[in-house]
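Regression check, adenosine-5'-triphosphate case 756:
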Amino acid sequence: MGDRQSDSARAEALRIEQSYVSMLYGRLDVARERAERGMHDVLARGGTGTRQAVVEREVMAAEHARRLAQLSAVERGLCFGRIDEAGGETLYVGRVGLRDDDHTSVLVDWRAPAARPFYVATPSDPGPFVRRRHLHTRHRDVVGIDDEVFDLDRMADGDRRTLVGEAALLAALRRGRTGRMGEVVATIQREQDRVIRSGLPGALVVQGGPGTGKTVAALHRAAYLLYTHRDTLERRGVLVVGPNATFSRYISQVLPALGETQVVLTSMGGLHPGVRATAEDEPAVAVVKGDPRMAGVVEEAVRDRERVPEGDLEVKIPVRTSVRGGVEVVVEEMMLRVDHATCLRARDRARGLRRQHNIARWTFVDPVLRALALDEAAQLDRPLEDGDLQYAATTLWEHRTVRDALDALWPEITPERLVRELLSDEERLRAATGPYLTEEESALLLRPREAPWTVGDVPLLDEAAELLGEYDYGAGARRRRAEDERREEELYAREVLTITDVDPVLDATLLAGRNREDGPYVTTADRAGHDRTWAYGHVIVDEAQELSAMAWRTVMRRVPARSLTVVGDIAQTGSAAGARSWGEMLDPYVKGRWREERLLVNYRTPAEIMEVAADVLRAVAPGEEPPESVRFGGARPRAVPADGTDLRLLVESELREIEEGRVGVVTPDARHAEVAALFPEAVDPLDSPVAVLTVRGSKGLEFDAVVVVDPEGILCQSPKGGQDLYVAITRATRRLTVVYEDRLPAVLHRLETPIT
Ligand SMILES: Nc1ncnc2c1ncn2[C@@H]1O[C@H](COP(=O)(O)OP(=O)(O)OP(=O)(O)O)[C@@H](O)[C@H]1O
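Current build output:
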């Protein structure tokens, strides 16, 4: 009887919600048709007219295009919940705001202030609200409902009869993992909401244990900030820096699913345009490279490229050539000389200007060239008039020998060449590190010339780029001119926007780009991603505990306004050059201006597995408390000896156990290749059902079942081995199996072992 009653209550609730949701999709269709028609009309008007008319047309076309893209992105799960007040008022919350014909709001955008109670009301602090209802939809159908009741007594009778469901959050967390992080707008928790809606200025640190939703909250924060501060952020863009390229792919779908595209996703290894560094340095090398003293080393390396000859400068130039057998040969040469003091003066003047090396080069080259020209004239007994001197100097520059001689003293040089030669040339390295590093530290940096770029090299490249300035100064000037022109057009477009009073969400940057006859259709994110000197409006750094002091210098250069979200967990620091405290890394830039939010609930890993992780954490970081799991249940975490275990069969049985989802096999660095060879089908760490990863490669990811291979090997692989084991264990959303070699590390005593 009771069951039948609740069945009919569910059916009744579903019917009511379906009718409302159908109405919302109707509104969405109307809005889409309107945008499509608008676009069509604008394009039909043709492509000629005054500049004003062209810009106006572009304004409208861009507006309709943006609106269309936004309306398409919200089709799936358009409306995901409602919140009811005691007085009978109801607010539906969804991915976008919609109004009816009378301009009454029928759906509130999740980022709008009005939607906030949907996320923050709780039974202990409900405000005027009595119930939160989650709606689950498939395509356009409402297929499920979950209710959270704050105050049964204050609910209207009709509503009380149609109460249904289980906690929406737990349902969301139980789903099998797909290999891509999804958005969680429907189930954002109160503590996460505080992070998401925290103000734009200053640095916000989001500290939280594994699985507390730091990443997911930070990405929703990006969407919230772009919605709330669109004016500032759309022009400047938002940069998200993750630990590696796989992680960037893992999170890449979250923001587009929220309708946001103005975001650049990259990793530390990708922050220097033109370089994709993936290799990692040995821990001892990483510590030296990440040390702030390296800024001095790079500066010294640049100074080392600003030399004067030991004595006078001597350069041979050809005086007479003849062609023999079709080849030009030098018949007579002369030696030109510039005295040491003149060279020294030229260098000191060029350095004194405090301009970047490649730009100051001309201040050095010019007087030396003139002195060479004067010497040439004196030797040939050919007095030079004032105007002739410049000409003679320019002519000398045509000689390869002259250019080579001056390049040897003050070369035009790229950051890549500077850093490569610094790290592979013992003499250069010694000269540059001398004032800053010990001999042992310096020796650690030396490597072969053909060594691949490492992630730790990127801050050095960035530092060098800052000090060197543009390579090919002429090209730089041309690019800057083009940028100025573009900026002017953008300003013009903005004015038109104000005059024509169209929707302010229109991106004038896009508009200016479209106005250019030559340029491709370039978004802010596109332009920013290719420009090392781009100043972003906001920067989000994930797994931020791994960044070295030098890496922070690189990141901070990208955000002069110092508006940042710094996401991480000090207890998970795996890099030897990483953070021991947030203050240590952030104080040099935002002392007194950073605030911390803590996330304390683990949404990923069930309590049984977290108990095992907690033992590991206590051993490496006494006093640190692991986050509390929101879920119990699942299989008991277990340990099996490697001897007598077929790893392939074990993984296959794990795949069967989870039915839907993925298995992650986590190994010590040294055993990765050997284990990966057992699973040739595991080609993609995100898309294959099985992924074989080192701990570093698994950072930020999660798997339904995790198999940790050789825990002792992980513990011993670096001074941060304990933290690594903690990270490996906490990747699991449902099952954990540890495969140990000779004996199980004592810290894992809680695991169930086979009875022997
Ligand atoms: N409010 C929520 N609703 C639904 N799922 C959530 C919520 N918060 C977090 N999750 C889920 O919990 C898991 C862990 O989240 P996330 O990866 O953001 O955690 P994290 O703190 O960055 O973890 P780690 O430090 O271990 O990388 C993800 O699957 C995420 O989707």
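Comparison notes: Residues 2-176 form one domain. The first strand starts at residue 79 and ends at 85. No diff flagged against the previous build.
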